[in-house]
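Could you please review the protein record set out just below?
***
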Amino acid sequence: QFLSTYIFGAFCPATGNSVGLVLPLVNKHTMLLHMQEISKAVPEGRHAVVVMDGALWHQPSLNLHNVTMLKLPPYSPELNPSENVWQYLKQNELSNRCYESYESIVDAACCAWNKLLEQPERVRSLTTRTWAQL
């Protein structure tokens, strides 16, 4: 009766750039795929810090030369800027909808993600934290 898909996303508060994947399940392997995509998107000579919670699949499983995972303390979603993005997508694009098939769920997730990517200023406003400014 219930089918799901998962959006993996990473966001740069400074530029509004984002990297994401829509995948059929969530586990250490799919997280590894996501981290590899982030690594590919990091400009030459730069380094990315990916802030994440303590979910079981958020495990360092690969040495990426240009990406570092920063684990947050337990029960602190307010410290994770991506939580605002997920809340925005749910409220504006994905919640309270019925879909005909699994493919239509994937299509809706992809459309919601792509629509967000067209709005880098929104990504910046959702993910910027004044206390994190250098």
